[in-house]
Amino acid sequence: MKKETITILGCGWLGLPLARMLVKEGYSVKGSTTREDKLETLRDAGVEPYLVKLDPEVNGDDIVAFLQSDILIVNIPPARRDDIVEYHIEQFSSLIDALGQSPVRSVLLVSSTSVYPALNREVTEEDSVDPESLAGQALLLVEEMLMQESGFQTTVLRFGGLVGYDRNPAKYLASMAEITHPDQPMNLVHRDDCVKIISEIIRLEQWGEVFNACSPVHPRRKEYYGRAAEIAGLPPIPLATSVESAPFKLVNSDKVTNALHYQFLYPDPAAQP
């Protein structure tokens, strides 16, 4: 049975290793970058490369050919700018218009747990109301835009803070005078888990869903950075003293583990390499 053709919009830190895995699994993969010097990197990975930008209109290499796929994975975070919400909506309005002329029937949106406010409790997929950050507001609005479309089915995947490889906490230790909010729990997920979860959603055809994806262990900030300092052979970092505890959220990922029968490769992000 011939496997689907998959287009990945955004082949960066997460998208490129995802593309490599999907190629290895036998899919035909198209991928985009905003930099010409990365086209050869995509080609070397077995990916059909395209130069594509959303600024905010979709433009670049042959967009029609780029979207000639069964599945589209969208991996573009909101741009850091003053009009972040309006701009992100304009980007996705343009993308949705382009999708209307394409054969794409399944979309996977890489989103973030920033859509949840700090409710000082565990949060599930139903708790995405009134995000505190502008990025979270932008993401929630484009989630809703895609989910409301009838021409294709959208699955939203909300990742916690991405860690692994060069995103190692040891990199930030030198600039940390102290560990702020030391008892605040963290919601993190390793890149290898991100890639595998996306692959499983595609394999099991879990479309029209919203999933959280965070490691089940939520280390406190003092544990996470303290362990990193210990591994790096650095002296312990002082803990900030605060009268009030920082607001927090504990992101629950039971839905994705149950639906995919998934076991996290790195259940404790504090122990990840």
Descriptive labels:
single chain; 273 residues; alpha/beta; eight-stranded mixed sheet; two-stranded parallel ribbon; 31% helix; globular
How would you sum up this structure in a few lines?
The chain is built from nine helices and twelve strands.
Provide an overview of this structure.
With 273 residues, the chain is α/β, with parallel strands linked by helices. It has one domain (5-163, 189-216, 247-266): NAD(P)-binding Rossmann-like Domain (Rossmann fold, 3-Layer(aba) Sandwich). The chain has helices at residues 15-24, 39-44, 63-66, 84-99, 134-147, 170-173, 191-203, 221-231, 254-260, and strands spanning 5-9, 28-33, 48-54, 58-60, 71-74, 106-112, 121-123, 153-159, 161-163, 188-190, 210-213, 249-251. The protein has an eight-stranded mixed beta sheet, sandwiched between helices. α4 (84-99) runs parallel beside α5 (134-147). The mean pLDDT is 94.
Task: Walk me through the topology.
Elements (H helix, E strand, L loop, with lengths): L4 E5 L5 H10 L3 E6 L5 H6 L3 E7 L3 E3 L2 H4 L4 E4 L9 H16 L6 E7 L8 E3 L10 H14 L5 E7 L1 E3 L6 H4 L14 E3 H13 L6 E4 L7 H11 L17 E3 L2 H7 L13
Parallel strand pairs: 1-2, 1-5, 2-3, 5-6, 6-8, 7-12, 8-11, 9-10
Antiparallel strand pairs: 3-4
